[in-house]
UniProtKB/TrEMBL annotation, chain A:
Gene Ontology biological process terms in this record: iron ion transport
Chief location bin: membrane
UniProt protein name: Vitamin B12 ABC transporter, ATPase component BtuD
Organism taxonomic ancestry: Bacteria, Pseudomonadati, Pseudomonadota, Gammaproteobacteria, Pseudomonadales
One annotated GO molecular function: ATP binding
SUPFAM superfamilies the record matches: P-loop containing nucleoside triphosphate hydrolases (SSF52540)
GO cellular component, as recorded: plasma membrane
Keyword Endoplasmic reticulum: no
Membrane topology type: Peripheral membrane protein
Cellular compartments annotated: Cell membrane
Keyword Iron annotated: yes
ABC transporter domain mapped to chain residues: 2-238
Automatic annotation (TrEMBL), chain B:
Keyword Transmembrane applies: yes
Main location (coarse class): membrane
Pfam families: FecCD
Organism of provenance: Marinobacter nitratireducens
The protein, known as: Iron(III) dicitrate transport system permease protein FecD
Length: 272, 358
């Protein structure tokens, strides 16, 4: 499956990811956590072969991703960027059908198998009713489901998502994460995503990788990773971690700087 | 990943009938009809207005020599050349707007026309000097059929410069690309004017007229010179339709869909430049068609690229022929260049469409 060995990535002279070795478990949900600028997005891009490693390697099926033919890679691995661009005036159905591009020769029109995969992808994400609507007219949550449908229409077994919840309100965030969780359980889709919310990561991930300053700090199950000392070290947040939903860790906290300003600040109470 | 069983595929027949009664088919039909109308008008109207019967007899070769000459040697080649340059500029603009995801991209604005003009004018002046110094009594000027090649060389160099200077951190930046193109266009235009003032001599007037973008004096030779490039351009655009659909997405998204972006973008840029520069080489830089027609086609066709493409071909030809027709009839016997009229005609329509934008 997907793994990195001593991977270092850089934009020009700026080193962003430094000597990261990790393996993505097949059929699981892996979350990348870390403060802003810790290299989460960059690492995801390198998984998709979008950024040549400065040193080290990303492997897919024991073969460096850089050596994969782009189209063959697109049949194994789909990626949803953080802020995808909506083509002018495109309808939901047509956008999702773009996910079929790697499945046909570049001159071919839509094949029947393409139509079927598009219809299935719409059904799985619950956007069938929106098929004829222009994508621009949809709400943020609906748009995100359409983008996920497009990635599903690609029929890959790995799905990479760069902060799929960032521009959504809380309800839509949970909706998107639950959709991914369902797809993972029912279809064995391997999901790798970067998230900002620790509790959402703990709730949905099988495995959490924590990045700090481009280095891999910790990787493990939510219970192993979510400790008060780790959260304090990486995010500079004082936390209390309790048992939350289904025994998953739940943390609440306040920033270090806040504590120094006012020691009287009431602590947030975890409610679940 | 496994997929659940799916619904039955659509029957081809039903989709064909659905297509024929669809708004898209009506659009294409309306476009084709208006093209037919301006073609007839282009042959019929002018300094001497002909009747239907005269045009028909002229085309069939059964009329007076005078009518024959007007139809065959003047109006038909001119109108058909207008069709081709309309197609060239419209498709070139369409490709440039799509490949750079930049609604302002067009051969004129990006400096491709200016680069093509500069090299074509330079080739004209140098070629003329060579010919006349070799044989001072020969006053035939530099051969027309080579001008598109020189124009394409100039257009390609400019297009590459704009493309690479328009990059920011490995991504094509629409704003930077447009600004670079506008600045380069200004500089190249100044150089062309300068070259003309210094070395234009007896040909200054002829070249100045060409630089305004005019179909004045378009003959069968112009059409013959342009036609191979029209076919190459159309073939290239047809190959590009599917990749272009994907290229409307974000760069990284495009690459994760399995498209080798740089290769296809370079190919699209090449075809767009060949189309615009070959037309510049024959009739001079005609602006606005490349900006207006793709926008109008997009408004009418929505996101359907094959339909946009067909509408670009039809409407580009309509605008060019109509603009030329008005330019040579409104103030007859004076002529207004096709580029000027297409701007005057197209811009209000464009503004109207913009104001209706949701």
């Amino acid at each position: 499956m997907l793994r990195t060995e001593h991977l270092s990535l850089a934009y020009g002279d700026k080193q962003v990811v430094d000597n990261v070795s990790l393996a993505i478990p097949e059929g699981g949900i892996t979350c990348l956590l870390g403060p802003n600028g810790s290299g989460k997005s960059t690492l995801l891009k390198s998984f998709a072969g979008l950024l040549p490693p400065r040193s080290g390697q990303v492997f897919l099926d024991n073969r460096p991703v850089a050596q994969w033919d782009r189209r063959r890679l697109a049949l194994r691995l789909a990626m949803l960027p953080q802020k995808p661009v909506v083509p002018d005036g495109i309808r939901v159905r047509d956008l999702i059908a773009l996910g079929r591009f790697p499945h046909r020769k570049w001159w071919q029109r839509n094949l029947t198998t393409d139509d079927n995969a598009t219809i299935d992808a719409m059904a799985m994400t619950g956007v069938s009713d929106l098929a004829e609507r222009p994508v621009e007219a949809l709400s943020g949550g609906q748009q995100q489901r359409v983008w996920i449908a497009m990635a599903l229409a690609q029929e890959t077994d790995i799905l990479l998502l760069d902060e799929p919840t960032t521009f959504l309100d809380w309800g839509y965030q949970l909706e998107v994460l639950e959709l991914l969780s369902t797809l993972n359980r029912q279809h064995g889709l391997t999901v790798v995503m970067s998230l900002h919310d620790l509790n959402q990561a703990a709730q949905f991930a099988d495995r959490i990788a924590v990045l700090a300053d481009g280095q891999l700090d910790t990787i493990g199950s939510p219970a192993e990773v979510m400790t008060e000392s780790l959260v304090n070290r990486v995010f500079r947040v004082h936390t209390s971690i309790t048992a939350g939903w289904e025994g998953r860790p739940f943390c609440s906290g306040f920033a270090e700087s806040a504590q120094s300003r006012s020691r009287q600040r009431p602590r947030c109470i975890a409610t679940s | 990943m496994t997929q659940p069983a799916t619904t039955t595929p659509r029957a081809d027949q039903r989709s064909l009938r659905k297509f024929c009664t669809s708004p898209i088919a009506r659009l294409v039909l309306a476009g084709a009809l208006s093209l037919a109308m301006v073609l007839v008008a282009g042959v019929q109207l002018g300094a001497i207005d002909l009747t239907w019967a005269q045009v028909w007899a002229g085309l069939a070769g059964e009329s007076s020599q005078h009518v024959q000459r007007v139809v065959f040697e003047l109006r038909l080649p001119r109108t058909l050349t207008g069709v081709l340059i309309g197609i060239h500029f419209a498709l070139s603009g369409w490709l440039l707007q799509l490949l750079s995801r930049n609604p302002l991209a067009e051969a004129g604005i990006l400096g491709i026309s200016a680069g093509a003009s500069l090299v074509a004018v330079a080739a004209f002046i140098v070629g003329d000097w060579l010919v006349s110094s070799a044989n001072p009594y020969n006053n035939t000027s530099f051969a027309l059929q080579y001008l598109p090649l020189f124009a394409m060389a100039g257009g390609l160099v400019t297009a590459l410069a704009v493309y690479f200077l328009g990059m920011r951190r490995g991504h094509l930046s629409p704003v930077k690309m447009t600004l670079t193109g506008a600045v380069l266009a200004g500089m190249l235009h100044a150089l062309t004017t300068g070259a003309l003032a210094f070395w234009g001599h007896a040909h200054t007037e002829l070249v100045a007229q060409w630089l305004a973008g005019s179909l004045y004096g378009a003959e069968w030779e112009h059409l013959r010179t342009l036609l191979p490039w029209t076919f190459i351009g159309l073939a290239g655009v047809a190959l590009l339709v599917r990749p272009l659909e994907v290229m409307q997405l974000d760069d990284e998204h495009v690459r994760t869909l399995g498209l080798v972006l740089n290769r296809w973008r370079a190919f699209a840029l090449l075809i767009a430049t060949l189309l615009a520069a070959s037309a510049v080489g024959v009739v001079g830089p005609v602006g606005f068609i490349g900006l207006l027609i793709p926008h109008i086609s997009r408004r009418l066709a929505g996101a359907n690229l094959p339909v946009q493409l067909v509408l670009c071909v039809l409407l580009g030809a309509v605008l060019a022929v109509l603009a030329d027709l008005l330019g040579r009839t409104l103030f007859s016997p004076y002529e207004v260049p096709v580029g000027v009229v297409s701007a005057v005609l197209g811009v209000p329509f464009f503004l109207y469409l913009l104001s209706r934008q949701p």
